[in-house]
């Protein structure tokens, strides 16, 4: 059988790493002084393992809400005699100054800090500890790292040091003493988002050996200093840097450049116009170029061939056929060409193997891939375009699209715009049209990021998108591996303060599906989370609004499901005024057939619990159940369920019937009349997982009408659905109990006749299966 999309298993290294991190105290650590986590003395971890442990830990902290963070984790890597770190990647605000200090003795080769706004100038001092070994450094978006923490009061006590550690960096206390003196091995440097107060030229001057430099968003009042690397620099990123003729003239002097990025976020924010002359100069002077990004620039019309000429022939990547005049001078096609948010992405002949743009699915996916990590503002727009493709057209690169959207949602868990567009795209990428091509593992990854979004954002659009996406999965089967988590999130959505009707409707539907056809221990666990009370609160609110809508009906249906064979949940229903709400709903909505069926089905579950039946044995409730025996709502379902409730109550015997009205014999007569009025071949809107509550009513003489109801129920179900219910009847010993009915003198003749017919029909059905 062919593998489905995204079905490649994790490596043993990946699995072992995750296991160790989730079980640190059982694998390589012990609990030290003041509960501090300490590495066992007999352990030495080489760099391959240390790097994997360190970076996987940060990924789990960032993407897995069930993963437990360890305050002293970074301290495990403080001693290079037992741990060897070489490549570290840290993202978002989890990193603090003291965490970086904990690993200062390591000989780091790569250190990537991205959007680590918890770091201050104190970490610049720590950086100097790595100056002799560091080859690659990223400080992208670390906006506070060039500022000192607010001054501590007077003496430097232990407490004040802690306050300093946790306090925000002061935007006025610029660190002026740091530079890259001594970082002689540094070759790759990302300084995107460098504060305006920091002079890039002075900061970078000591770095003579750079081969890759990213100055995204950095203002460059002087540009000539870039020429100090003209013989070495292979990659230069100037994203969102204001271009000028001076800067362009400087860039084209960097003759060894292989990658040049002079793109912008949007054409609207640009005053600079990309002319044919400028593009020609870039192509002619930078002869080693294999990657160029000019996204977001205003392009003058004289850059492209006439429309008629452009439309001729099949699309080609050969430079000589290029629809963009300056690129006709390329000696070979570019490996990458960024044309996102430009008019050039729409031309036919583009001399590049990979192009970003918005013309087609391939360009859009390339844009998401290229811009997700450092340019969420562009990734957001590209994902929105992918959403339109999946919604209106057809996504032909499903696996790639899903993996890119998942990666974006993981990378930017705290970016609302990414979460909104990403969750919307996932809804269409996981629907029925694409489902058969997706592996279990890939769909589980989708569920993980959807639940992350639901946890992080209470905003209506994100919640709606996430709930709708979950509806694309087989419930409860595909959600069972996150069963408790998804239920908790849905119950939170359904808190009374929330008023969005569409989200309520979807969330209640999901809750109902999640408690249908699951084991009792799952139902009990969800009951303890407050499921019963939440549903009853919704019903109470709908009653106040005098509205019987899908939320009302789904809420009763969910209560019916969650109380099935779970006495504790039935008890919760009674404790939370469930019977009062039942009576109010009957009175307020006398003609709502499905509502009545759901409510009576639920009360049938309550009546199956012997200890709770006395709470149903009141004149008011018995009168209501007796009256509902005459109901024709939803076929026979309401009458059948009302009779079931009374059958269990009658089974407790005449001695518990302490009321004068209604009389027990009169109610039993009504039950006989109701059962005889039902069509035994009726198709049913009910699903039994077990016959045990029915079977217990067979071998007894206390209540012949209860015995007859049970016999009729089995006869109907086995006759209409033999393939489903014959095996269940055998499994639960029903044949023996039916034979017992024939032996009992107390059994009514019509009950015996039906039992005999059932045994004959059962034998026939069994031979046909």
Description of the structure:
- By secondary structure, the protein is α/β, with parallel strands linked by helices.
- It contains 33 helices and 16 strands.
- The strands form four sheets. A ten-stranded parallel β-sheet has the order 3-4-5-8-9-10-11-13-15-16.
- A hairpin with a 5-residue loop joins strand 1 (29-31) and strand 2.
Key traits:
769 residues; alpha/beta; Leucine-rich Repeat Variant; ten-stranded parallel β-sheet; 33 helices; elongated
Itemize the secondary structure elements and their pairings.
Blueprint (H helix, E strand, L loop, with lengths): L11 H11 L1 H4 L1 E3 L5 E3 L7 H17 L23 E5 L5 H6 L7 E5 L6 H7 L8 E3 L8 E3 L8 H9 L2 E6 L13 E3 L9 H5 L7 E3 L20 E3 L7 H7 L7 E3 L11 E2 L1 H10 L5 E3 L4 E2 L7 H4 L23 E5 L13 E5 L4 H11 L4 H17 L5 H14 L4 H14 L2 H4 L4 H17 L3 H11 L12 H11 L7 H14 L5 H9 L2 H14 L5 H13 L4 H9 L2 H11 L4 H15 L11 H10 L8 H14 L13 H14 L14 H4 L8 H17 L1 H10 L2 H10 L5 H20 L1
Architecture of the domain at 617-768, according to CATH? Alpha Horseshoe
CATH topology of the domain at 617-768: Leucine-rich Repeat Variant
Q: Tell me the strand order in the biggest sheet.
A: 3-4-5-8-9-10-11-13-15-16
What percent of residues adopt helix (DSSP H or I)? 40-55%
Gross geometry: elongated
Integer average pLDDT: 89
Distance between the terminal alpha carbons, to the nearest Å?
30 Å
Low-pLDDT stretches are: 151-166
Q: Which structural class is indicated by helix and strand composition?
A: alpha/beta
Number of strand segments: 16
Figure out the total of helices.
Answer: 33
How large, in whole angstroms, is the Cα Rg? Answer: 35 Å
Beta-strand percentage range? 5-15%
Biggest sheet descriptor? 10 strands, parallel
Highest-level CATH class of the domain at 617-768:
Mainly Alpha
Pfam family, one: LRR_Zer-1
Organism: Myripristis murdjan
InterPro entries: ARM-like, ARM-type_fold, Armadillo, LRR_dom_sf, LRR_Zer-1, ZER1-like_C, Zyg-11_UBL_adapter
Protein name: Protein zer-1 homolog
């Amino acid at each position: 059988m062919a593998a489905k999309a995204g079905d490649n298993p994790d490596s043993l290294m990946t699995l072992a790493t995750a296991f160790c991190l989730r079980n640190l105290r059982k694998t390589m650590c012990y609990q030290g002084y003041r509960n501090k986590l300490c590495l066992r003395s007999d352990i030495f971890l080489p760099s391959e393992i240390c790097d994997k442990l360190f970076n996987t830990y940060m990924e789990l902290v960032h993407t897995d809400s069930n993963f437990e963070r360890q305050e002293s984790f970074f301290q495990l890597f403080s001693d290079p005699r037992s741990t060897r770190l070489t490549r570290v990647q840290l993202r978002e605000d989890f990193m603090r100054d003291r965490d970086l200090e904990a690993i200062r003795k390591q000989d780091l080769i790569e250190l990537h800090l991205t959007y680590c706004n918890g770091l201050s100038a104190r970490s610049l001092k720590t950086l100097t500890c790595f100056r002799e070994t560091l080859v690659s450094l990223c400080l992208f978006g670390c906006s506070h790292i060039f500022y000192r923490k607010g001054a501590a009061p007077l003496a430097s006590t232990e407490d004040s040091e802690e306050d300093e550690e946790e306090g925000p960096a002061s935007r006025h206390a610029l660190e002026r003493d740091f530079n890259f003196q001594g970082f002689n091995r540094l070759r790759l440097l990302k300084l995107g988002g460098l504060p305006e107060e920091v002079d890039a030229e002075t900061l970078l001057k000591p770095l003579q050996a750079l081969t890759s430099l990213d100055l995204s968003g950095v203002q460059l009042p002087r540009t000539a200093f870039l020429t100090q690397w003209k013989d070495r620099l292979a990659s230069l990123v100037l994203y969102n840097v204001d271009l000028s003729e001076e800067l362009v003239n400087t860039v084209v002097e960097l003759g060894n450049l292989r990658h040049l990025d002079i793109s912008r976020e949007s054409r609207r924010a640009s005053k600079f116009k990309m002319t044919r002359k400028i593009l020609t100069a870039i192509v002619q002077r930078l002869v080693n170029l294999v990657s160029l990004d000019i996204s977001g620039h205003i392009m003058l019309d004289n850059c492209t061939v006439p429309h008629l000429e452009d439309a001729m022939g099949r699309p080609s990547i050969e430079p000589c056929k290029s629809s963009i005049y300056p690129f006709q001078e390329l000696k070979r096609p570019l490996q990458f060409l960024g044309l996102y948010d430009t008019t050039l992405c729409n031309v036919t002949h583009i001399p590049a193997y990979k192009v970003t743009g918005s013309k087609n699915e391939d360009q859009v996916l390339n844009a998401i891939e290229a811009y997700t990590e450092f340019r969420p503002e562009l990734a957001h727009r590209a994902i929105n375009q992918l959403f339109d493709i999946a919604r209106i057209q057809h996504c032909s690169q499903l696996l790639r699209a899903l993996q890119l959207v998942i990666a974006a949602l993981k990378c930017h868990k705290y970016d609302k715009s990414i979460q909104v567009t990403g969750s919307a795209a996932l809804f269409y990428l996981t629907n029925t049209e694409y489902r058969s091509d997706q592996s279990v593992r890939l769909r589980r990854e989708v569920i993980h990021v959807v639940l992350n979004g639901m946890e992080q954002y209470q905003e209506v659009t994100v919640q709606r998108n996430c709930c709708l996406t979950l509806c694309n999965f087989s419930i409860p089967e595909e959600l069972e591996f996150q069963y408790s988590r998804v239920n908790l999130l849905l119950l939170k959505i359904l808190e009374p303060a929330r008023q969005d009707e569409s989200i309520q409707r979807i969330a209640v539907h999901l809750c109902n599906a999640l408690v249908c056809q699951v084991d009792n221990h799952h139902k009990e666990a969800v009951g303890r989370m407050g499921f019963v009370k939440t549903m009853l609160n919704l019903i109470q609110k709908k009653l106040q609004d005098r509205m019987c809508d899908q939320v009302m009906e789904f809420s009763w249906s969910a209560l019916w499901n969650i109380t099935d064979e779970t006495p504790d949940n039935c008890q919760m229903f009674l404790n939370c005024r469930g019977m009062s709400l039942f009576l109010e709903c009957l009175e307020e909505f006398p003609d709502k057939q499905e509502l009545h069926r759901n409510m009576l089905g639920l009360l049938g579950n309550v009546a199956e619990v012997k200890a709770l039946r006395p709470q149903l044995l009141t004149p008011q409730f018995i009168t209501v159940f007796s009256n509902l025996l005459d109901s024709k709502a939803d076929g026979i379902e309401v009458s059948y369920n009302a009779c079931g409730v009374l059958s269990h109550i009658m089974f407790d015997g005449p001695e518990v019937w302490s009321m004068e009205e209604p009389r027990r014999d009169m109610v039993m007569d009504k039950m006989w009349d109701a059962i005889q009025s039902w069509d035994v071949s009726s198709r049913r809107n009910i699903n039994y997982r077990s016959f045990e509550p029915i079977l217990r009513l067979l071998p007894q003489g206390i209540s012949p009408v209860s015995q007859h109801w049970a016999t009729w129920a089995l006869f109907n179900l086995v006759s209409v659905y033999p393939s489903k219910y014959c095996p269940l009847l055998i499994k639960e010993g029903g044949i023996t109990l039916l034979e017992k009915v024939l032996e009992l003198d107390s059994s009514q003749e019509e009950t015996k006749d039906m039992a005999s017919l059932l045994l004959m029909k059962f034998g026939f059905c069994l031979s046909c299966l």
